[in-house]
Amino acid sequence: MKKKVRKAVIAVAGSGTRFLPATKAQPKEMLPIVDKPIVQYVVEELVSAGITDIILVTKWDKKTLEDHFDRSIELEHSLEEAGKLKLLHDIRKISSMANFIYVRQKGPYGNGTPILSAASLLNDEPFVFAWGDDLVLSKTSFTKQLIENYEINACPVIGVQKVAKDHVNRYGIVKLKKGTREMEDVIEKPKIEDAPSQLAQFGRMILTPEIIHILQKTKLGKGGELWVTDAISEYIKQGGKFMVEEVKDGKWLTTGDPLNYLKAMVEYAIVRDDIGDEFKAFLRDLHL
């Protein structure tokens, strides 16, 4: 009987150098999308899908991120005294959304290292692995969509989205078994002419203990980094089944660089009930 997915690992140990000097004294994942930090959107997506335990893999300069998901008694008291009860409710909710666990990242550079850093806390359970700067704006939590896929197919599953042909060399690109949604392979940042598809994997996936065991033996790959995609490829080569899931009624929005961060900001702003219509009118009036 397969175990229920109730834990998640969020990778938030990056340095955010593309956003300097804004990230000199704050984590990139704490940059706001309108009035909420990037990482809070990720957490809310996980929680709305039933995730109860969230492991954030950090490093020495992420204290403000940890503080964000802690209680702020003085702030709560000030809001209560001022009668700002809606804000008080919103602030209190942040720390109570899930059980937050913080682990310092240790090991080689690469997106596979956060998984190994959190491995001892996963208790041989399936888990969601998310990148702290990848957002999915969708009507239904994309994590919930992944979990539904996992429950049907009883195997790991990764989020994918179609990208422009000239952008495939920026991402891990999946190759599907003919006529199925099962992955045959995933190639990290292939040459444009060698890409097996235009389906890019992004920072949402459900992994199983088998992937961890393979990752522990995986050698450093492209760029001298430890890639989770290399472990996934080996898992498939060993006969493992691995599915893909495209976002339904929404889209993946990366915030990994200033341009895409601004695009994500606009996407989230225009769907807001409080400011969306006025902001769209402002954009139309720019006449750019």
Automatic annotation (TrEMBL):
Domain of life: Bacteria
InterPro entries: GalU_uridylyltTrfase_bac/arc, NTP_transferase_dom, Nucleotide-diphossugar_trans
UniProtKB keywords: Nucleotidyltransferase, Transferase
Pfam families xrefs: NTP_transferase
Biological process annotations from GO: UDP-alpha-D-glucose metabolic process
Catalytic activity: alpha-D-glucose 1-phosphate + UTP + H(+) = UDP-alpha-D-glucose + diphosphate
Enzyme Commission number: 2.7.7.9
GO MF, one annotated term: UTP:glucose-1-phosphate uridylyltransferase activity
Broad EC category: transferase
Chain ranges of the Nucleotidyl transferase domain: 7-268
PANTHER family assigned: UTP--GLUCOSE-1-PHOSPHATE URIDYLYLTRANSFERASE (PTHR43197)
Family, as annotated: Belongs to the UDPGP type 2 family.
Name of the protein: UTP--glucose-1-phosphate uridylyltransferase
